[in-house]
Amino acid sequence: MLCSHCGAQMAPDAAFCSVCGKAAGTAPVNLDKPGASAPQSDDGIPGGTPGSIPDGVKGWSWGAFLLNWIWAIGNRSWIGLLAMVPYVGWIMALWLGFKGREMAWKNKQWDSLEHFNRVQRKWSQWGIGITIAAIVLAVLAAMLAPDVDEAGRAVTAQRDQDEAPARANDAAVTARGIVDSKADDLPASLSTVAGLLDRRTNADGSRAVTLGGRVLFSGEDAGWQFPLRSFALSGGKEAILMASSGGRGAGCETLFFFLLADASGVRPTPMFGTCAARGSFVQRGDTIALELPDVSGASTFVLENGVVLEDGQVVSLTGMNDPSR
């Protein structure tokens, strides 16, 4: 017999139509009769009553659950877009899994129940396939992660090895800072291993640099010489950085020299500098490096083993750079 709703061929004892899913009617419809047609439902498919859901529609949808908002767009079930909202997305995904097929049946035009089930089956296949692929990729990534960590450790070890000399060099730094011959807090005198380093004014108005009360320098530069700071050296020795500031005109503010001191006395180095009054220093053990700005950028003066080097060249004592003149 024919289904009274869609006109499909049915078995004589069938309770429901296998095409539209409607309950079988008692009166067959002759679709060959001119002007005859199957009744239409408000759902846009042949047969049924408005708002009715065939038994073959209800059920769990893996496509709606796993693909949620993507499935919602494809099936015009716009409420499913709430699956993209944080915190409530997983609740909406579960709800789509339970009610998605019914929503899709109501919200979209279908040729038949068979057509609907075929489309929803493809959605489920894609959802399951994509999920399995994602799981496989996650497992592979987890398996490869130890190799990545090992490579990262190797890179870190190599970087540490490359930076080891610089760190060792930094570890050897005894002191670093700024020297400024025009600072307000410069010491008036300085206690050294060789005695008190001080300045005094003679009866005739001339100035002198004294060590333990004995005149050390009394030349024309003595009035401009004063201690800046001391550096402790090994073996109970000491290096005192001295400034010779003023008396040179506006073109040269300051020159520097060291007093190398021990218990027996002091020995001066030649004066050096770029005429800059301010610079920076770094001490590494018994080596003291003083960097001073100049017209080309900066010059480095190093005191090492009692000798002053300017950019690697020995500074020799001459009449012009003798602190005692």
Poorly predicted sequence stretches spanning 5 or more consecutive residues: 26-50
Secondary structure tally, helices: 3
Overall pLDDT, averaged?
80
- DSSP E strands, number: 15
Strand % is 25-35%
Rounded to an integer, what's the Rg over CA atoms? 48 Å
Spatial arrangement of strands, main beta sheet: 1-11-12-13-14-15
Looking at the structure, what is the overall shape? rod-shaped
Biggest sheet, open or closed, and with what strands and sense?
6 strands, antiparallel
Query: What is the N-to-C order of secondary-structure elements (H for helix, E for strand)?
Result: HHHEEEEEEEEEEEEEEE
How far the N terminus sits from the C terminus, by CA atoms, comes to: 133 Å
Structural class: alpha+beta
Give the proportion of residues in helices: 25-40%
Tell me the layout of helices and strands.
Layout: H1 62-74, H2 89-107, H3 113-171, E1 173-180, E2 190-192, E3 195-201, E4 207-211, E5 214-217, E6 225-232, E7 238-245, E8 254-262, E9 265-268, E10 272-275, E11 278-284, E12 287-294, E13 297-304, E14 307-310, E15 313-314
Antiparallel strand pairs: 1-11, 2-3, 3-4, 4-5, 6-7, 7-8, 8-9, 8-10, 11-12, 12-13, 13-14, 14-15
Helix pairs in contact: 1-2, 1-3
